[in-house]
Batch of 2 targets.
Target 1
Amino acid sequence: MILVLGGGVTGLSAAMALEASGKECLVLEREAEPGGWCRSFSAGGYTFDLSGHFLHLSDPAANRFILDVPGVPWRRVDRDARVWLRGRLTPYPFQVHLKGHDPAFVSRCLAGFARERIRAAISGERPPEHLAAWLLQRFGKAMCDAFFFPYNRKMWRTPLSKLGYEWTGWSVPIPRFDDLLEGASGEIRRGMGYNATFFYPERGGIGSLARSLGLRLGTRLRTGIEVARVDLRAKVVHTSGGEALPYRSAISTIPLPRLASFSEGLSPAARKAAGALSWVKVLAINLGIRNPGRTPGHWVYVPEREYPFFRIGFLSNVARSAAPGGRVSMFVEKSFPANARVDVAREVGAALRGLKRMGVLRKGKAVPLLAREFGRHRVFLAGRYGAWDYYGMEKSMADGLRAAREAANARG
Ligand SMILES: Cc1cc2nc3c(=O)[nH]c(=O)nc-3n(C[C@H](O)[C@H](O)[C@H](O)COP(=O)(O)OP(=O)(O)OC[C@H]3O[C@@H](n4cnc5c(N)ncnc54)[C@H](O)[C@@H]3O)c2cc1C
């Protein structure tokens, strides 16, 4: 028996391959349904993924396997990704779409990029020591300060001087100077980067992939079974329900630090190595919007600190079926250090405020109308309840100061 620990898309694919080669296998999945991060759910006529999941394909063998899974209504989609920077929305990648930004900023970006290219031509490429140095060499200071540094800090929640850059090859498009110049004068670069097209199911969200795989595996997938301990010497998996399942070999898709923490029989060196692994956690907030504001493209990268999220996306712009007519299904992603305590209600409030500032959510008509009308009578609305907004103490008090200024300067 080959045990597969975890029934996300990796575990399900492994089990399908084992089955195809005639091997006996069993998938153990902790949750009530398979899919892991690639799950979807419906509520109020909307479809949501746990967070935006778009399938980017490049490996022909994997392509065939994934697109041939029966029952998944795949559709090929041309990417429409954007970047929200300095109050402007430009196509992704931002570095080759500088037009529209103020001319001084565009000059700084071009000059910074050129300076790094010239430096490399004169002194040769120095191997960068970390991600920050790699980004600086590739894009120059102005673009790093505006986008690459804040975006990567927001996403990785770790000083960039402590991160490697080996993963960047497939995901960070490196432009030529000509690309920058053409983008600065307004040319739109479609298809640049690793994910110019992607696949997404017409209906049912990305979860329809795992659901179909799960159905095909039938009783070889057991859900609601948590692996609690692995005895490496005896080759037995123990579940939290008290079952002991012997295996000939096993495939683990459980996060590696977790697997190492409950595996018996690891060497001290392996245990130490597991202790050196670090990660971030991601909060995905899904919203169904009845009266959307500006909801452009498939997803938007948001590097600046004043917005609490690093990426937002509009699932119903990818698959119309994800929201009732005229409405929008969207997701918001924010990451946290591994040990952070996440106050979800507070994060939702902060996300809603950020989305209002970007114009994704309308501010609503009632409050501005009332504020205008009271203002005409020189009554200034302030604070969480007075201004009818989701403020904490600091915001309420700052709003009090703002209202004081307006009241003091009021004429008439
Ligand atoms: C916010 C976010 C956005 C992403 N967007 C994209 C995208 O757009 N495109 C893309 O290609 N990739 C994307 N990814 C990456 C993608 O989610 C992963 O590559 C993929 O889901 C990995 O699948 P997996 O099966 O290895 O892991 P998981 O999905 O984590 O599955 C692991 C499974 O193991 C189970 N498990 C864990 N512990 C136990 C236990 N003790 N006992 C039993 N079961 C257990 C879990 O419940 C889970 O079902 C994104 C990831 C994140 C976090």
Target 2
Amino acid sequence: MNTDRPFWETKTLAEMSKAEWESLCDGCGRCCLYILHNEETGDVFETDVACTLFDARGRRCTDYENRHARVPDCVALTPQNAKSLSWLPGTCAYRRLARGEGLPDWHPLITGDRDSVARAGIAVSPDLIPEDAIDDGLLESRITKAR
Ligand code: SF4
Ligand code: SF4
């Protein structure tokens, strides 16, 4: 076995340690945005409305350890569901590795720089609207792009 290859090329998601698994997250923050589904077409749209626990400037969850208890809609990513969660952005490392696509060259594990995800234009904007500041009926007006 070639041990020079990085863990994300030699291990399956299920074989990774907790630290390796966590390090796959590029910190883009796009799974913390509200998304809308068109049930007829299956299309998914991204908004500029973020989960109430999301710190848009730091691009981080402010209560990561308790996120599932605090936000029941916060989906737990696992090696088993990473491939099938079609609403995850196509850039998400979990989705990409689950689909055998490898990591993009801007990924922080490759660049060694957390800010490379922002420079590549993948990270969310710091100017997001917190969900508790907008009425559910207005979410459609906050769509920014198709995902
Ligand atoms: S979309 Fe994927 S890579 Fe981006 S913050 Fe969410 S889990 Fe991490
Ligand atoms: S609870 Fe935290 S990890 Fe989950 S969607 Fe909200 S900000 Fe993101």
